[in-house]
Amino acid sequence: MAILTFRGTGDSMGVPRVYCPCAVCEEARAVGGNRRLRSLLQIDGLDGTEEENTILIDCGPDWGRQMEAAGLRQTKRILITHAHFDHIGGLVEWADACRWTESRGQAYAPSEVIAEVLGRFPWLKGQIDFHELDAPRMFGDWEVSSWRVHHGKNGYAYAFRFEHKTTGRAFAYCSDSIGLTAEQKRPFEDLDLFILGTSFYHEPYPYETRSVYDVTEAMELLNELRPGRMILTHLSHDIDLRKDYELPQQMQFARTGMKVEI
After folding, report:
1. Fewer CB within 10 Å, N side or C side of the chain?
2. Can the peptide bond before residue 227 be classed as cis, meaning omega within 30 degrees of 0?
């Protein structure tokens, strides 16, 4: 059984946005119900329950605070969805942690993502080993595969599908996408759990300027792909967790620290 913990559920700016006086950002400052750090998913139990087997998806600029919240002093493995700063800004801090603990980090990403990361931070190779995830790879009893997805005006990202070799249970993580093609949607079929990024409830901006699905579009994907459950993450300050959005029964918003077993 895998245990998923949502350590970062915010979009590229996080919540509160430092410049913003909106009701959601003010609540996040004063109370914290809407406070959201940048995207990070913690996965335990893929190949055992020991702490050292923890796997993270992405390593944004809030990585240190998220590690403290998780009670972790080090992690050995991180999967990377794409090379935007809100998903890789913590790699330098991770590398420094590896240096101080005299360990080597193991990062997994598609080859074009690795090339982009190392093009900006070539010195990371001194403390982190980068492994290409262009073909499916086994982590314990789970096969992990990745594929390229449209990220709108922001180019591309990758999604990950996890499938258990014995039970066939499967979940997928796709934090940054919009306008998926039929081919890109195919690996999202037959899922027990689909984790999807949706920054706004209904994004009002022209489609060509957008980069992530909104909640109304996610509802359409839910009806089309019919996963057992859908959890929405990568949430901007447009989403107020105090409100009832009358989501479908199988859909919910991720909350910081929320745990899911699969």
Report:
1. N
2. no
